Amino acid sequence: MKILVLNCGSSSIKYQLIDMDGRRVMARGIVARIGEKGSYIRYRTEEGEIFEEMPIRNHVRGLEIVISYLLNKKIGVIRDRSEISAVGHRVVHGGSIFLKPTLITDEVIKVLREYSYLAPLHNPHNLAGIEAARKIFPGVPQVAVFDTSFHQTIPERAYLYPIPYEFYLKYGVRKYGFHGISCQYVSTRCSEILGKPLNELKLIICHLGNGVTICAVDGGKSIDTSMGLTPLGGVMMGTRCGDLDPGVIFYLLKKTGIEVEELNRILNNRSGLLGISGVSNDIREILSRAEKGDVRCKLAIDMFTYRIKKWIGAYAAALGGFDALIFTAGIGENSPHIRSMVCEGLDFMGVELDEEKNAKAIGTEAVISKNSSRVKILTIPTDEEKLIAYETMKIVKGLMRKEY
Questions:
Q1: Domains of the chain in sequence order
Q2: Backbone angles phi, psi at 99, to 5 degrees
Q3: Residues 285-326: pLDDT tens digits?
Q4: DSSP E strands: which ranges in 114-269?
Q5: How does pLDDT run across 143-188, given as a tens digit for each residue?
Q6: Which residues are catalytic?
Q7: How many other C-beta atoms can be found within 10 angstroms of the C-beta atom of residue 156?
C-alpha cells in the first residue's frame, strides 16, 4: 500500500510518498513559495535530489507538479497515480469534534472550516491541501490526522480555563494543544531508543520550531501541554507571543486604537522572536547576530530559553519527576546552543547535559546526557509523516474490511 502524505502551509506543500508494505519513503520534498516569486519544488528519492524553480500559482498546481515528478519516466517512483491507495493530511485543529484520525467527507470539511478561526495560520491551508488532493484524486480515500487528538487525554483540571464554566459548555473554550502528531511519534521513539516500555516512562517533550510546544507525557498519554485554545498560547515562538496577561490585550486596544483583527495579526505574525529581536524569526540569524553583539537578539534568545526552562519545571512538578527530556523539531533537533541554554541550571532535577555529545547531535537521534544523568536527554528528529501514513493505513484497511 502506497500512501501520499501532505502537510500544507500557507505557501507550501511538504510531501512524502510512503510504501507501507516495504516501510520505506519512496519520495519526499517540498513545494514552496506557492503564489509568490521564486516558487520551487524540491524532490528527493533514494537516487538523489532535484531542485527546480517554476511558477506555482496555487496548491492545486503545486500538487499537480508533485504528481508529475512521481510519474516521471526518469526520476519517478510510480507508473500510474492509481498506485496511490490513500492520501493522509496533517490538520492542526480538530477541536472537540475530531478525537482521532478521520476519513474526510464533505461534512468533515464543513466542520473543519468552522474551526479555522481557532488556527488561522494553519487550518485554512490544511483545507487548501485537502481540496486540492480531492480534485486530483477523486474517489481515493483521504484521511485527516489531527494535532489536537493526542492531547485528548489531558485531564479536566488542566484543560479548563478559570473563566465562567458556561463558556466551555456553550463555545468549547478550553485548552486543546497542538503538535500532537510530533509528540506521539517522539514518545514512541524514545521508548524504543531507551528500551523501556512507554507506559512506564514520564517524558517532557520540547518541540521547538517556528511553533513551540512543551508537552508532559505520562505512560504514553499527554497530561498537559503548553499551547491552548489556539496555537497562539504557551511559549514565545518565531512570530507568536505565547502566553500573555490578558490585560495586555485590552490595554493595547485602548491605547493604540487599532482594531481587534489587527492586534490578532500582530500577536500571531509580528511577535515572539521576531518582535523582540526586530530582525527575524529565524533562530539561526538571531544567534548569529547575538554573537556579534546585537543586544535585542541576545535578549530574544534569553527570553526564549528562559520560558522553555520554566515550562520544563512546571511539568516536572505535574509529572512528579520525569525520566527523559526530548528535543525535537527544527530548533530542537539542530541547535546545540539553544539546548545547552535550556538545560543549564537544571542539574538539581537530574538533568545533566553532556556538552560534547550535544555539539555533535545535529539532525540525528542521540542521547546527549551525561552517563551519570538521572534524566536522559535525547534529540529525536520528528517524523509526523510516518505517523500520519500509519494512521491513514489503519483507516483504509478498515474500509477494505467493511467492503468484504
A1: 2-146 (3.30.420.40), 180-384 (3.30.420.40)
A2: -95, -5
A3: 999 999 999 999 999 999 999 999 999 999 999 999 999 999
A4: 142-146, 202-208, 212-218, 221-225
A5: 999 888 899 999 999 999 999 999 999 988 999 998 999 999 999 9
A6: 147
A7: 8
